[in-house]
Amino acid sequence: MKKLLFACLAVITLASCSSVRVATDYDPQVNFASYKSFAFYKPGIDKADISDLDKKRILRAIEQEMLKKGFVKSNNPDVLISIFTKTSKNINIYQNNWGYGYGWGWSPYYWGTGYNTVSSTTEGTLYIDLIDKNTMELVWQGMGTGALAQDMKRKTEHINTIVVKILEKYPPELKKKK
After folding, report:
1. Can the peptide bond before residue 43 be classed as cis, meaning omega within 30 degrees of 0?
2. pLDDT band at residue 122 using 50, 70 and 90 as cut-offs
3. Which pLDDT tens digit goes with each residue over 26-47?
4. What is the DSSP string of 57-113?
5. Quick count: other Cβ atoms within 10 Å of Cβ 132?
């Protein structure tokens, strides 16, 4: 019974860690169809509090998605792309309040409390900002939150997944209607 419970908790934990939560915000007055080219905004990217390797992974993923959307990377872009990040640590406590054993009293068998499992995960939030090059105003922001990985291969996969999920929401006017 304990093995089955542990397996269920492991599946739930892994499923919750693999999910990415995404939100966006944008200026409804902007004509996003007019944007055709992009470049990265170095001053904003330099402020991101992550390793240079992770910055490269994020920028590669963003560039790949923007090119898929038909954008061109340019020295004279329509929009500048900046990023910033946040991390938070989540503590998860799973209580198993049922158990059994042998004891004393009127009956030698009893039901009692079980055990607690404590785990922690680190969640990262990536913000992708699109800034109009002419006005230098923020016109679109996408935010994706998900569990962070330490393994290089998994880290790259997580970053790519988060970037894809965020940029699926861009441009806001061309969202698929249901």
Report:
1. no
2. confident
3. 999 999 999 999 999 999 999 8
4. HHHHHHHHHHHHTT-EE-SS-SEEEEEEEEEEEEEEEEE---EEEE--SSSSEEEE-
5. 17
